[in-house]
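REQUEST FORM: STRUCTURE PREDICTION
Request ID: SP-0412
Submitted by: Lab K.M.
Chain count: 1
Length (residues): 156
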Amino acid sequence: MTYEDRVEKAVALFNSGFNCSQSVVAAFADMYGFTEEQSVRMAASFGGGIGRMRETCGAACGMFLLAGLECGAVDPKDSEGKSYNYKVVQDLAAKFKEANGSLRCADLLGALKEKKTTHVAEVRTAEYYAKRPCPRMVECAAKLWVEKLKELRNEK
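STATUS: Completed
RESULT:
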């Protein structure tokens, strides 16, 4: 599967009902030895701006989770490795924010800001998809991850 196929897969996963974070992570999870089920479980809580609290965009969180899988430090004393991972995450965050104006789900939803945040997920209808920028956020996060992955792996 090409990287471009993975970007398309991420959007298709979102459009099938997965949350934004699950969609980004699941599109790349097999590259790290995870099944789709494992990947959607590990990313499940990050949708809706982390637990539907409308904080950090779930698509961006998915990108950050992938950064941890790609270059996260595994030795608790590895300060250099931790710092490198944080640099990768901050670079991704800056590019996502530059492309979309914010990292915060509530800001990205704009006029859709809810009066009160609730844990109840919305039913996925045509109207839901029509009013949300989420598929674009998923696509953006997946594309940014592809760019970063190529850079990290020294690919063209």
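NOTES: The longest helix spans residues 79-100.
Reviewed by: T.R.
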